[in-house]
Each structure stands twice: as structure tokens, then as C-alpha cells.
Amino acid sequence: MAKRLDILVPFLNERESVAGFSALAGDLAVQVKERFGLETHFVFIDDGSTDDGGALYGEHMTGDWSLITLARNFGKETAILAGLDHSEGDYVLLMDADLQHTVDVALDMIGRIMADSELDMVYAVRSDRAETRSLGRYFANGFYWLINMGQRYEIPANAGDFRVMTSRFAAALRQLRDQRRFNKGLYAWTGFKQERILYKPAERQGGESKWSRRRLIAFSLEGFTSFSVVPLRMVSLFGTGVAILGFLYGIKILLEVLFTGVSVPGYPSLIVAVLVLGGLNLALTGLVGEYVWSALSEAKNRPNYIVKSITGSHTATAVQTAKASRKATHG
Ligand code: UDP
Ligand code: MG
């Protein structure tokens, strides 16, 4: 039997690019069959779209595909997990629906992973990010430096979800049921042999990016709280340092009063100490709160997502529905 490639496509309000993506999908399917002899199966995950994008795929897609509609917007990271749960290909490719991920790069990655049996993941790294010098870039670099500090695995910068993996890598990812998902971290944590290729994403076709600054900040915090204790350690070390200095300073004042009789001057130093320590206290409380909230989300042990419906082309429908109900009953 021919080997199979599953292509997972999470989308949120991408109606403008449905026709374009369906054309790309047809092209990809043909090339993948010709060059690598792989059958393709597309899995679209509707991550709570409020437009009619999901239904539009039904009109434009040909070939073998299914559509998993989630009950609301769970976020791209979780939508990808939903896709993984409903795929069983020998290889799994992740692609964006907005046409920023191109056929050429996808073929290149598939070629590499098939050529080397030791390789379990090939991922695309944005080459256009490295050159830009902006404040955001410095923050991003600082972020990766911090989150990778003292880890046994490294989370690569500028690598997104444009990846191809083997079925055993996909199986490993399915086991990671983190509620607050940070995919980049999960890919790195999983291990295996991975290879990177450089790519320049195409312009977005219609619609707009779903990443606002606020969302990026929230997402970075989630990354931290699920992958790193470094921020907590830094604040506690700093706190300890300040406490030691304060203690020494106290002894100095005490000695001065005892031996020279100078009364305590220094209203400014007092207020500085109060402000610095007060601020630090609040920051640390907030940070601890983040970690507690993260722990609470995991402890609730809710399912990662809720599926509203599964539809698709002829053969896929029955298989996927059967698989889904099997999963629902056996957990
Ligand atoms: N997406 C999603 N759920 C979300 C946000 C985004 O499924 O909550 C999808 C989106 O439709 C697109 C992909 O994830 O197919 C990448 O999103 P986007 O293009 O906004 O990110 P960017 O390319 O700007 O990093
Ligand atoms: Mg995009």
C-alpha cells in the first residue's frame, strides 16, 4: 500500500484564501504523488471561524480531505493537536491556510524527511527575521535566550509550525496534552533528530494576521510558565541579594550609632528601598500567580478541545467519524 501524507491545516476566518489554498492543495497532491509516491489526505481544522470558510472548502476542494469543526476558537496550537488526533498518515505536514506556506518549501521538507530514515522532523525557519533590527526583535531574542537557559533541549528562534514529521513524532506529540500549549516548546521537548531549512514566507493572501501584540505577550508568558522556571529563579536570587545588602547596611548603621553616635539620616535611601522592594514583591506575586494559574489549568484536566462536527469527502468521512467516536469513548 502506498504511504500516506496527512496535511493539517488549522484556520480561523480565512474565507478569502479558501479558493487559493484549494488550488495549492491540488497542486501539492499531484507533485507529492509524482515525486514521492505518497497519497495525500488534507485535514482542515476550523478553529471557531465566524465566516463561512469551512463550507467553502467543501465547494473548492477535490481529492481526499476532511474538515474538523471545533466548538469555538481554541487557538492554533490546540487546533493542531485536534488535527494530529485525527490523522494517521506515515508523514504529517503542518501548513497555514493563508498561503504563506508554499508548495516548494513543503516539497523540499518532504523530500528531506523521506531521504533520511533517521530524521523525524524537518522544520522551516524564517530567514527574513534575522536581518531586521527592531525593538520587537530584541525582545524576541531575549525571550529565546531566557527560555533556553539551562534547558536540556533548545527551542529554536524564528521556527513556526511549518513542519513535516514522521508518524512516530506525531504519536509522541499526541501524548503531550498540555492545556496551555506552546508548540515550539513541545516540538523541542519531544527530541528525535530534527533538521531545519530556511524559507521566506509568502505574503498573506487576504484577511489579516491573528497575532496582535497583546496576544503575543500572553503567548510568551504561556511559553515561559510551561517551559521555564528561570524567571522565578532570577527574581528569587535578586530578592535574596537585596535582602543580604539590606542586612549588611543595617549592621553598618547600627555600628555607626553605637560608636559614633550619629543618628540615622537618609530618608531618600528609605524610600528607594521601599519602592524597589514593594515593586519587586508585586512583580513576583504576579509571576507566581501565572505559574499557579498554569498549574490550575492543567489540574482541571479538561479535554483540550471540543469537536462540533466532522465532515469531508466520501471515504474520509466514515473513517474519521469512526476514529473520533473511538477516541471519545476510550479517552
Ligand atoms: N489560526 C488558527 N487559530 C487561531 C489563530 C490562527 O487556526 O486562533 C490559523 C490561521 O487561520 C492561519 C494560521 O493559524 O491559517 C497562522 O495564523 P496567522 O497567519 O494569523 O499567523 P502569522 O502567519 O501572522 O504568524
Ligand atoms: Mg500567516
TrEMBL record:
Presence of the UniProt keyword Membrane in the record: yes
Compartments in which it is found: Membrane
Regions that span the bilayer: 235-255, 267-293
Enzyme Commission code(s) on record: 2.4.-.-
GO molecular function: glycosyltransferase activity
Keyword Transmembrane recorded: yes
Domain Glycosyltransferase 2-like: 31-165
Gene3D superfamilies, per database record: Spore Coat Polysaccharide Biosynthesis Protein SpsA, Chain A
Chief location: membrane
Keyword terms, alphabetized: Glycosyltransferase, Membrane, Transferase, Transmembrane, Transmembrane helix
InterPro entries membership: Glyco_trans_2-like (IPR001173), Glycosyltransferase_2 (IPR050256), Nucleotide-diphossugar_trans (IPR029044)
Recorded topology in the membrane: Multi-pass membrane protein
Domain of life according to the entry: Bacteria
Protein name: Glycosyltransferase family 2 protein
Organism: Nitratireductor kimnyeongensis
Organism taxonomic ancestry: Bacteria, Pseudomonadati, Pseudomonadota, Alphaproteobacteria, Hyphomicrobiales
